[in-house]
Amino acid sequence: MKLIIPMAGRGTRVRPHSHTTPKPLLPVAGKMIVERIVETFGRTLDRNIDEIVFILGPDFGQEIKDQLSGMCNRQGASPTFRVQETAQGTAHAVYCAEQDLEGECIIVFADTIFDMEGSVSIEDADSVIWLKEVDDPSRFGVAVEKDGQITDFVEKPSEPISNLAIIGVYYFKEGKDLKREIEYLLENDVRGHGDEFQLTDALDRLLKDDKVFKKATVDEWLDCGTLPAWRETSGVIVEKEAVDIDESQFKDTKIIPPVYLGDNVQLEGCKIGPYASIADGCNLKNTTVENSLIQGQSMLQNCHIKDSTIGKHVELNKVDQQVHVGDHSKIGIEV
Q1: Bridge partners (DSSP) listed for residue 78
Q2: CA–CA distance from 24 to each of 152, 218, 332 (Å)?
Q3: Where are the extended beta strands (E) located within 73-120?
Q4: What is the pLDDT of residues 209-219, one digit of tens each?
Q5: 72 — phi, psi (to 5°)?
């Protein structure tokens, strides 16, 4: 089965980090967002994914492809890369992998992390849509269901027609059916919300063609689309996956769980946590970190960091405030 992941957007709401790293490749407790999504399918799907198709932006370089290929190798799948030259909506993004829309496929937009108990059965369905119950459905596209089958899709409903939000994960028994309906939208210039080609419009056409749509309801749906959301999601995952850390291995350091520490992290005279994520190879001295995430190979000394996000290879000295610092930045350091 193919897994198709549109990820051509640069993620402007998580700048400065997305200037150098596409949003789906940003880490959450030491693991890329996109890899966490793939692992969730490995746990919950009743069949294997053997190919992952990544739809990238035209300026995504070889380093990004290498990271994604490495992830595919770890997950036992082969990588394929397609390009979306311009952003024209979710249906247009999916169609950039038109040659891959054949046979069984899953489409997932890598903006969120989700999880669920048990497994998903895709038998006897032309399509399965992953959904989450929400308090305010007016913020989302929603699915209307009856007797376990989906009967309608509504984008950001003004009336309380359904509280089942579409989380951006879709299974199709036959990708060619979806391809046909997207082609209709493109050829006839059928635009939806935001004057763009929307995948929900293609789904509506499939419903009208009497395709059987079923639902899979997730228990956990965590947003990574903004800096605060990414940081908060990191905290949730750090707590969920927390392991005991022996603070005695670090000189004059206090660990307040939950905390994630990557490999080869050096701490001296520090207070770390709660809800701190510090990636591989970081070196911290006389520093406090709370409710923040620090990416790999960064060096902090004499800092008090709270509610912050720090990139890779960053050097900070005497920083005592909330900060969001991109890769290779230096603050308070002689250069």
Answers
A1: 51
A2: 29, 20, 30
A3: 78-83, 105-108, 112-115
A4: 888 888 888 88
A5: -60, -40
Put simply, whether the predicted model's pTM sits higher than 0.85 gets the answer yes
> If you count them, how many residues does the chain have?
335
Pairing between β-strand 164-172 and β-strand 78-83 as defined by DSSP bridges: unpaired
Q: Distances from the Cα of 131 to the Cαs of 51, 97, 167, in angstroms?
A: 24, 24, 6
Token digits of residue 233? 């999601």
Residue with token string 């990271």: 67
Tokens representing 17 are: 């980090």
Is residue 80 packed enough to be buried (19+ CB in 10 Å), middle (13-18) or exposed (0-12)?
Answer: middle
What CA–CA distance (Å, rounded) separates 42 from 251?
40
Q: Where are the alpha helices (DSSP H) in 30-128?
A: 33-44, 62-75, 90-95
Q: Which CA distances in Å does 133 have to 36, 108, 172, 223, 224?
A: 21, 18, 22, 14, 18
Residue type, 271: K
201-248 pLDDT, tens digit per residue, is 898 898 888 888 888 888 888 888 889 999 999 999 999 998 999 999
User: For the chain, which domains are there?
Assistant: 2-228 (3.90.550.10), 244-331 (2.160.10.10)
The tokens 């059928």 sit on which residue?
190
| Successive 10-residue mean pLDDT values, the chain, 335 residues | 88 86 89 91 84 91 92 93 90 94 91 81 84 85 84 81 89 93 93 85 87 86 88 94 92 96 96 96 97 96 96 96 95 84
Rounded CA-CA distance 3/8 in Å is 15
Please list, in sequence order, all residues whose beta carbon lies within 8 angstroms of the beta carbon of residue 136, skipping any fewer than 6 positions away: none
Q: Is 303 exposed, middle or buried (0-12, 13-18, 19+ CB in 10 A)?
A: buried
Q: Are 127 and 171 in contact (CB under 8 A)?
A: yes
**Contact between residue 318 and residue 9 where contact means Cβ atoms under 8 Å apart:** no
The confidence score (pLDDT) of residue 53 equals 96
Alpha carbons 95 and 92: distance in angstroms, whole number: 5
